[in-house]
């Protein structure tokens, strides 16, 4: 598969993980041309890839994966060797408020892409999902494996589980060459500051309280976004059709540990911590077993949480203009 990759379609490439993936591909694979399809919803930020505007290997297309005729034509005309599907609504709190956009993008959009890719005979389809489809773990439970049943607990994770099952069905029903990846909590540069780590970094730097849900003892496994993107690349190039691959950072931390670490790195005191009412149905613990990915793809996480968090705080400090444009909404003033 690796040697035959010349043109790939990335969906959601202006989002946090997608943008990092586009950068990694262009840096590591000079023979590759990338088309980035993004609807530029609130979390799709053209600023994330603005410096690539002059790169002849990079093409931006503004469009919605839920627009079936548009997607069908784009993929039919594109001559793509692979589709790497990041585009998703992904914020749990927003899904609790209104699940409809999550169903439209994550379920309908994914099926549109699958249908279009199958009709165009695209050789490979990589679907990027989340460990949240597995549900929650108790303190002593073993980590999620690829065989763990899907038991999603939020509208967001339910919509992603739905998309995962559609991808599975495309393999079993139509024989499509599909690979699904599931990943633990990401952090790193270009992350929209509604998620825990960038929200807490940007709040702390501005001396604004950091809102901790409940008792702050929820446990998450944190993976640096570059390690995740390396995993998706490995799945794209080495993954077996029909398989699922988990990626995690081997870095389980209590949310309160992460909060205190951010405050220390930003030079702030714990007086900024503000406890808020816990989210409804908040999963208590996620942990991911990555043995299969390590064994079959030769992938291992390379960034420790301590070094990754230090670098991430430094990035947000150095990119205050990016943060200001996100927080003011100015980044939405153009379509790339």
TrEMBL record:
Belongs to the NAD(P)-dependent epimerase/dehydratase family. dTDP-glucose dehydratase subfamily. Its cofactor is NAD(+). Signal peptide: none annotated. It comes from the Bacteria. GO terms for molecular function: dTDP-glucose 4,6-dehydratase activity. Its EC number is 4.2.1.46. It catalyses: dTDP-alpha-D-glucose = dTDP-4-dehydro-6-deoxy-alpha-D-glucose + H2O. NCBIfam families: dTDP_gluc_dehyt. Keywords: Lyase, NAD. InterPro entries: dTDP_Gluc_deHydtase, NAD(P)-bd_dom, NAD(P)-bd_dom_sf. Residues 9-312 form the NAD(P)-binding domain. This is dTDP-glucose 4,6-dehydratase. It is an enzyme of class 4 (lyase).
